[in-house]
């Protein structure tokens, strides 16, 4: 995200609005809140015309991070299941 020029403040604002969105719109509020928070922070920082490309970069980076975490967790669970069934 540093290559795209997205600061940490943008992710913090997105995270805070994701928490608010969780309570306002129960099912999809976390996703909506995060996207809107990142976009609003970027509009305030760089203007409306350049906000969407940096928002996409932030969302892509967070998505890749979540995918890596999910893959690691599934791998750990698979190893545990194999270990339990063998012994």
Keywords:
single chain, 87 residues, mainly alpha
3D structure, described in words:
85% of the residues lie in helices and 0% in strands. The longest helix is centred in the last third of the chain and has 39 residues, at 48-86. Helix 1 (8-24) packs antiparallel against helix 2 and helix 2 packs antiparallel against helix 3 (48-86). By secondary structure, it is mainly alpha-helical. It starts with 7 loop residues before the first helix and ends with a helix. The protein has helices at 8-24, 29-46, 48-86. The chain has one domain. It is built from 3 helices and no strands.
Biggest sheet layout = none
- Average per-residue pLDDT, rounded, comes to 90
| Radius of gyration, CA atoms, in whole angstroms | 17 Å
Helix content: over 70%
Helical segment count:
3
Alpha carbon gap, first and last residue: 44 Å
Topology pattern, helix = H, strand = E: HHH
The backbone outline, from C-alpha atoms, is: elongated
Strand content: under 5%
Class based on secondary structure composition and strand pairing: mainly alpha
Total E-strand runs = 0
Extract low-pLDDT stretches.
none
What is the count of distinct domains?
1
Structure summary:
The protein contains 3 helices and no strands. It has 87 residues and is mainly α.
